[in-house]
Backbone:
């Protein structure tokens, strides 16, 4: 991965708005319930074109979740949109009771997730959202790696059988997923095949593994993108780890309740004798910084951290 293959950054939020607007043209039951963050989530196109289907609730996260549930139970496909630091963090109880328990077709979109909040700082960093949503029964949990993948996820999850949570980031970022690959609920994708060590991750942070692979000599990495965190693609992950016997998980999220802790019991149940290391934020709150790359470095998620972890894990 280099500047020639990724010459430009792209916005997940703009991809979300344009794709949702396109889908709404043929799916008249798509509604958006927004928590006073239309411009921040770049939903201007949808809001302008489908005024009657864009409901601005204001700064009222719990009310918004309840309204979304009511609309869904009346037959609508509802997108509940906010920052991940506010939804699901502030309205988790209503999501549990009114959306998941009732199997209301609501897709909760948590933007500005992880450490990539730039000048908005630590108060807007959501490092616990996946843990919150994984703990709930009867909901799917997804994390997009880039804007290209957002465009592939949305047409699939509007037809999904359960409520869903979709994690987006604020910062623009290069597309690095395969433009020819599809998205399937419960499926992971192998970005690069290898034989010595498996890396599984989700979100933009996974690009660091591809960059690390370019610098590693004499170590063959197999890199897997897992946008579907719940349900998890157990088959693809187990097949890879059985081959390599070494695993690193990487995510811009707390180690508790994240993808790594979803995979660890899977390896135990399968009696796999594999060495494993979880790269994530280790039980700390985030910090404010204008450059999220510095935060990735601070929390041990940078390219060099992956390189050193891989070398240490492979030592006899």
Residues:
């Amino acid at each position: 991965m280099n500047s020639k293959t990724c010459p430009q950054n792209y916005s997940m939020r703009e991809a979300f708005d344009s794709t949702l607007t396109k889908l709404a043209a043929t799916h008249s039951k798509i509604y958006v319930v927004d928590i006073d963050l239309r411009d921040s989530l770049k939903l201007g196109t949808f809001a302008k074109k489908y005024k009657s289907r864009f409901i601005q609730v204001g700064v009222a996260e719990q009310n918004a979740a309840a309204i979304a549930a009511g609309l869904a139970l009346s037959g609508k496909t509802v997108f509940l949109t906010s920052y991940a630091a506010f939804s699901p963090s502030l309205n988790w109880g209503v999501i549990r009771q009114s959306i998941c328990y009732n199997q209301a077709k609501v897709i909760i979109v948590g933007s500005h997730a992880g450490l990539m909040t730039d000048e908005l700082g630590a108060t807007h960093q959501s490092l616990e959202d996946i843990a919150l949503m994984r703990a709930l029964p009867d909901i799917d949990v997804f994390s997009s790696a880039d804007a290209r993948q957002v465009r592939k996820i949305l047409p699939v999850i509007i037809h999904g059988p359960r409520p869903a949570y979709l994690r987006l980031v604020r910062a623009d970022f290069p597309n690095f997923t395969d433009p020819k690959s599809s998205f399937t609920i419960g499926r992971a994708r192998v970005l690069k095949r290898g034989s010595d060590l498996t890396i599984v991750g989700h979100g933009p942070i996974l690009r660091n593994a591809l960059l690390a692979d370019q610098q590693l000599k004499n170590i063959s990495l197999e890199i897997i993108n897992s946008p579907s965190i719940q349900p998890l693609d157990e088959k693809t992950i187990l097949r890879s780890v059985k081959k390599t016997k070494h695993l690193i998980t990487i995510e811009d999220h707390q180690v508790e309740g994240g993808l790594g802790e979803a995979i660890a019991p899977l390896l135990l149940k399968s009696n796999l004798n594999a060495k494993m290391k979880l790269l994530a934020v280790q039980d700390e709150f985030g910090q404010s910084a204008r450059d999220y790359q510095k935060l990735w470095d601070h929390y041990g998620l940078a390219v060099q951290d992956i390189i050193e972890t891989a070398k240490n894990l492979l030592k006899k």
